[in-house]
Amino acid sequence: MGLWQRITRVFRAGTGAALDRIENPELVLQQTIRDMRDRVPELNNSVAQVMATERLLTKQKEQLSAQVVDLDSKIKASVKMGRDDIATAYIGQLQQAQMDLERTSVQAEHAGVASKQALKARDNYVLNMKKRSAEAMQLISAAKQAKLQEQLAQTMDTFNIGDDASTFNEMREKIDRRVAAAEAKLQLGSSSVDSQMQDIEREAMDIQLQDKLLEYKSQMGMLGAGTPPAAKQIEANATATEAEVLDQVIVNESSQTN
Asked: In terms of pTM, does the model score above 0.70?
């Protein structure tokens, strides 16, 4: 092997290795998708031109067909009128129109086939582009996941859980103390004088409502003769309950003061 070939091989090998290091598969795939999408408008323009040629030839074919029919009618009319000279001129025009019609028909047929092929090629390209785009997105997602796993592996290599164990224990202890203090405050708040007074007020309101209900029933004759003593007994029981609750409040205040 010659010296120049060896130098060329070394240069190509070094360049390839450098490109492998700096080449980002994710960016390359994204650029490939953009390039494929950028070709779609150009492809649509080409298909549109082919379809426009087909339509133009079809229109010319229709015009020539109408011209042939018109010339045929004129020839017949000229023959009936005995104007052979005019009929002969029309026959010449008819022959030219028929030749143009035949040529245009062939061109229109070829243009129709070309239009269908171009449209099919465009559809196949778009379908292939969507398929390639989906594959590229999957590859990009896999590349991102691989990169994340690499970063996680590097982090785990430099992370020592034993170094931070004392910190976690200290923070856990502080949080437990705060939770215990909050629960104690909540318990004191629920057993305070205000809370017990609110319970008494709710009980008194319930007793008033029951008394009012008994009063309505008594006015409507729905209660027997023994009902009023029962109502008085309820009131007496409610009074006794209020007294017991007040005694309990006083005991709680005395214990908290001590």
From this structure: no
